[in-house]
TrEMBL record:
<comment type="similarity">
    <text>Belongs to the histidinol dehydrogenase family.</text>
</comment>
<feature type="binding site">
    <location>
        <position position="157"/>
    </location>
    <ligand>
        <name>NAD(+)</name>
    </ligand>
</feature>
<keyword id="KW-0520">NAD</keyword>
<feature type="binding site">
    <location>
        <position position="286"/>
    </location>
    <ligand>
        <name>substrate</name>
    </ligand>
</feature>
<feature type="binding site">
    <location>
        <position position="442"/>
    </location>
    <ligand>
        <name>substrate</name>
    </ligand>
</feature>
<comment type="pathway">
    <text>Amino-acid biosynthesis; L-histidine biosynthesis; L-histidine from 5-phospho-alpha-D-ribose 1-diphosphate: step 9/9.</text>
</comment>
<keyword id="KW-0368">Histidine biosynthesis</keyword>
<feature type="active site" description="Proton acceptor">
    <location>
        <position position="354"/>
    </location>
</feature>
<keyword id="KW-0862">Zinc</keyword>
<dbReference type="GO" id="GO:0051287">
    <property type="term" value="F:NAD binding"/>
</dbReference>
<dbReference type="GO" id="GO:0004399">
    <property type="term" value="F:histidinol dehydrogenase activity"/>
</dbReference>
<feature type="binding site">
    <location>
        <position position="241"/>
    </location>
    <ligand>
        <name>NAD(+)</name>
    </ligand>
</feature>
<dbReference type="InterPro" id="IPR016161">
    <property type="entry name" value="Ald_DH/histidinol_DH"/>
</dbReference>
<dbReference type="InterPro" id="IPR012131">
    <property type="entry name" value="Hstdl_DH"/>
</dbReference>
<feature type="binding site">
    <location>
        <position position="388"/>
    </location>
    <ligand>
        <name>substrate</name>
    </ligand>
</feature>
<feature type="binding site">
    <location>
        <position position="289"/>
    </location>
    <ligand>
        <name>Zn(2+)</name>
    </ligand>
</feature>
<feature type="binding site">
    <location>
        <position position="286"/>
    </location>
    <ligand>
        <name>Zn(2+)</name>
    </ligand>
</feature>
């Protein structure tokens, strides 16, 4: 059974369904479209026709842009920046000088500047706790270990669609700086002809090295292949629209990428102790991001579910981004009634949400049941919004069920591991025969002989006879 909630205060149907059928809930939570064959919105499709003169798929658009950026460098970047972002730049204007960052930071309202600084401090403190060091394990057979090295140069894509996201820049650049990355560059689209001053200010606070006003698939191509102005990076981080996501997938191998981040999503689990007004506010905070965002509630109490739908209607009425939030709720929103918390967590694990919020009388009792989530927000005083800005963990988290196998951005994303093997004759004597046997089983005789030569007697010696202290 499913119903549509109605808010008498606004006199219109609230665009979210209350579903009681568990089979339907599970189907809706596990049936998610991937990036392959993603359909463009009407606005995007019209833009493609205007720029390319044809009805191309998102994949075709990305392939064409990447090929041109790889072949033509800055010229292709400038052409697509003019055509897609409406910014007519020269090659000298692709990079934004540091003086502009300083001016943007100085021009911020002091309260906003302090808020960014507070968030930056929290992010840095959280990520410093994750630092690992190289290690070497010495034994009578030699030395084994790992050398940890930061990446030399990383690129961060900072999106600008219907809003600027300086917080995303902080959440990505600061962990990279903590990890010791030598050079951090940022690409951000010149929305409305210029990169948002908020992004410029965030770049200065985060300790970024260079910033380029380039967006879309052309930015991903520029960072992956390098141009006359934009340097090639080792790894690309940051979310974006469908063109950015597909471009990141296409360049993987030429460079590393963090993930294929899709549209943002949140799943709330609540019982009768929860405040319906707070639940509605948390859902709208997610829905207002984008029409493709997902805000989902699994409630163990039918009366609570009904109250939440009513609160959604009331709060939607005066939300500045009402149209976006309403479209998101209508297309991807869900309020479901489930019998108990274990059932809710079972469904949540099947969905593997980016954000999992536990608004329960005893939220910590539910935490051991969590297997798949980008981040867990424990209790009514831990809204996702706190994590979006100032709690400390990066808000760049896995979406689209990829939380089943991937993690939020963390310091380890910006380092690599080099294995160390420094064996001695004792190790060869113990491990060599097994290595040679496995090599011959695989048909790699040359491998086996490389070991056997070290095991065989030589120079009149009776073979390897390890002794104490043989290093």
């Amino acid at each position: 059974m499913s119903t549509t909630g109605v808010s008498e205060d606004i006199g219109a149907a609230v665009p979210v369904r209350i579903v009681h059928d568990l089979d339907e809930v599970r189907r809706r939570l596990t049936r998610r479209a991937g990036f392959e064959g993603a359909r463009l919105s009407a606005r995007m499709a019209e833009g493609v026709r205007r720029v390319f003169g044809d009805d191309l798929s998102a994949e075709q658009v990305v392939d064409r842009i990447l090929a041109e950026v790889r072949a033509e460098g800055d010229a292709a970047v400038l052409s697509y920046t003019a055509a897609l972002d409406g910014a007519a730049l020269t090659a000298d204007e692709i990079e934004i000088p540091g003086a502009a960052w300083d001016a943007a930071l100085a021009g911020l309202d002091p309260t906003l500047r302090d808020a960014m600084a507070t968030a930056a401090d929290s992010i840095e403190a959280f990520h410093r706790k994750q630092l690992r060091t190289s290690w070497l394990d010495y034994s009578d057979e030699g030395t084994l270990g790992q050398i940890l090295r930061p990446l030399e140069r990383i690129g961060i894509y900072t999106p600008t669609s219907t809003a600027a996201y300086p917080s995303t820049l902080l959440m990505t650049a600061i962990p990279a700086r903590v990890a010791g990355v030598e050079e951090i560059i940022v690409c951000a689209p010149p929305s409305g002809g210029a990169v948002s001053p908020l992004v410029l200010a965030a770049a200065r606070i985060a300790g970024v090295d260079r910033l380029f006003q380039v967006g879309g698939a052309q930015a991903i191509g520029a960072m992956a292949f390098g141009t006359e102005t934009v340097p090639r990076v080792d790894k690309i981080h940051g979310p974006g629209n469908i063109f950015v996501v597909l471009a990141k997938r296409r360049v993987f191998g030429a460079v590393a990428i963090d993930s294929l981040a899709g549209m943002t999503e949140t799943l709330l689990v609540a019982d009768s102790s929860a405040d319906p007004g707070l639940i509605a506010a948390d859902m709208l905070a997610q829905a207002e991001h984008d029409p493709m965002a997902s805000a989902i509630l699994l409630a163990t109490d039918a009366a609570l579910a009904a109250s939440v739908v009513g609160a959604l209607g009331e709060q939607l009425a005066d939300l500045p981004r009402t149209a976006i939030a309403a479209e998101s709720l209508a297309a991807n929103g869900l309020v479901a009634v489930v019998p108990d918390v274990p059932t809710a967590l079972d469904l949540a694990n099947a969905y593997a949400p980016e954000h999992l919020c536990l608004l329960l009388a005893d939220p910590w009792a539910a935490v051991p049941m969590v297997r798949h989530a980008g981040g867990v927000f424990v209790g009514e005083h831990s809204p996702e919004v706190l994590g979006d800005y100032a709690a400390g963990p990066s808000h760049v988290m896995p979406t689209g069920a990829t939380a089943r196998f991937s993690s939020p951005v963390h310091v380890g994303d910006f380092t690599k591991v080099i294995s160390v093997v420094a064996a001695n004759r004792r190790a060869v004597a113990r491990l060599g025969p097994a290595s040679a046997t496995l090599a011959r089983a695989e048909g790699l005789v040359g491998h086996a002989r490389a070991i056997e030569r070290r095991l065989a007697p030589s120079s009149g010696e009776p073979g390897i006879m390890p002794t104490a202290g043989d290093q």
